[in-house]
Design goal:
The protein contains five helices and no strands. It folds into two domains: 45 residues, no CATH class; 31 residues, no CATH class. It is globular and about 40 Å long. Helices cover 50% and strands 0% of the residues. By secondary structure, it is mainly alpha-helical. The protein starts with 10 loop residues before the first helix and ends in a 17-residue tail after the last helix.
């Protein structure tokens, strides 16, 4: 996993465009949850209707970013299951 470090003024815009192309872990939590306002906001973000929320100051998000490798290792060690295809983007076969 690589952590994106802002290195240019356009970093946030590129990152936002990139996030519109897939469903991440935080998105999945919103989709499976029961917060309708958050779900509608996510839908609007993915459609490009609203700017994504800036989570750079959110401690939980930042801790998640820097501990992904640790969390993956802990899961594999405690379950005996090896994770593969990490950060792999899979396109649904119906969507072309």
């Amino acid at each position: 996993m690589s952590v994106l470090v802002p290195s240019s003024p356009g970093h946030r815009q590129r990152s936002a465009l990139n996030r519109r192309q897939f469903i991440g872990g935080s998105d999945a939590r919103i989709i499976m949850g029961n917060d309708e306002a958050a779900l509608v906001r996510l839908w609007r973000e993915k459609r490009g209707e609203v700017e994504p929320e800036d989570l750079s100051g959110n401690l939980i998000v930042q801790l998640g970013l820097v501990t992904e490798d640790l969390n993956r290792h802990w899961f594999e060690r405690n379950t005996g299951q090896a994770l593969k295809d990490i950060q792999r983007r899979i396109r649904h076969p119906v969507i072309r």
